[in-house]
Amino acid sequence: MSDHETGGMPSDEDLSLPKATVTKMIAELLPNDVTCAKETRDLIIECCVEFIHLISSEANEICEQGSKKTIAPDHIISALKRLGFESFTEEVESVLKDHKQQQKDRERKVNKMVECGLSEAELLAQQEALFAQSREKFRAQQ
């Protein structure tokens, strides 16, 4: 059992990013005729993990100085500025704005479900009926 599973801090070996996801991101950024070696991908992952650690440590310090117990987005932005990554802040603020909008949109969808006046069981029954209709249409076309 790792320290993380027992409630302790995870070791550096436990901290990583999904290789498949990083590979996909790299492939999307590179021209089609360029490939990335596995060692290069692993190095990129290590650099990303180190960057995250650096930013989160600095944000934690800023958070503690403000007598806060939760790191907020503003702490991350301040950490980026303190560490000399001012050029990243505009993009981070844009992503944060998009994220907040997505959260609002998601809340509206949840509210629509609540406002429809049907219980979760009734909604599930309707969904099952729609699936059954769809299956019948599909079978009829074959």
What features would you describe in this structure?
The protein is mainly alpha-helical and 142 residues long. The chain has five helices and no strands. It has helices spanning 19-29, 38-65, 73-82, 86-115, 120-141. Helix 1 (19-29) packs across helix 2 (38-65) and helix 3 (73-82) runs antiparallel to helix 4 (86-115). The protein is extended.
Helical percent range? over 70%
Shape: extended
Sheet with the most strands?
A: none
Look at the structure and give the mean pLDDT: 88
Helix segment tally:
5
Poorly predicted segments: none
Output the helix-strand order: HHHHH
Q: Which structural class fits the helix and strand makeup?
A: mainly alpha
Q: What is the CA-atom radius of gyration, in angstroms?
A: 23 Å
Number of strands: 0
How many angstroms separate the termini? 52 Å
Assess the beta-strand content as a share of residues. under 5%
Per-chain topology:
Layout: H1 19-29, H2 38-65, H3 73-82, H4 86-115, H5 120-141
Helix pairs in contact: 1-2, 2-3, 3-4
List keywords for this structure.
single chain; 142 residues; mainly alpha; 5 helices; 71% helix; 0% strand
Task: Describe the structure concisely.
With 142 residues, the chain is mainly alpha-helical.
